[in-house]
Amino acid sequence: MRNRKRTHRVEVAMNDHEYKKFLESVDRCGMTKQAYLLFLINNRIPQPRPKKDFYDMIKQLRIIGNNINQICVVAHRTGSIDEVKFKQCQDELNQKILEIRSAVLLPIKVEDGNN
After folding, report:
1. Angle of helix 33-41 versus helix 16-29 axis, rounded to 10
2. Which residues contact 29 (CB under 8 A, 6 or more apart)?
3. Which residues contact 47 (CB under 8 A, 6 or more apart)?
4. Which of 6, 7, 36 is CA-nearest to residue 19?
5. pTM tops 0.85, yes or no
6. Which residues make Cβ contacts (< 8 Å) with residue 3, sequence separation at least 6?
7. Nearest to 60 by CA among 34, 19, 18, 98
């Protein structure tokens, strides 16, 4: 049997409501119960797993970044820049930034069952 660094076990008593909230928090973060508690003990608040659209947005930003990089390579080589392509990339980037801000900064309505 391999040696474990963590030799102390802790039992925590919770009522049904507390335990349900705990499990929901653990599930939202995609962590084990132990990992979740260890984060909290170490003054770290686990973040919920990002939604799929987060990864889609990152992918789109990478594509836009690639396009801008290609424009820069051509501009460096030729000494001129394709203003139309550059403006199009700039507009796409600004739109994606707005979408990310909305997804990240706008408050999320929590259903409490009293509505």
Report:
1. 90
2. 36, 46, 47, 48, 49
3. 29
4. 36
5. no
6. none
7. 98
pLDDT tens digits, 71-101: 888 888 898 888 888 888 888 888 888 888 7
CA–chain centroid gap for 44, Å, is 16
How many whole angstroms separate alpha carbon 14 and alpha carbon 84? 61
* 6 CA to centre of own chain: 30
Q: Which of 57, 45, 88 is nearest to 70 (CA)?
A: 88
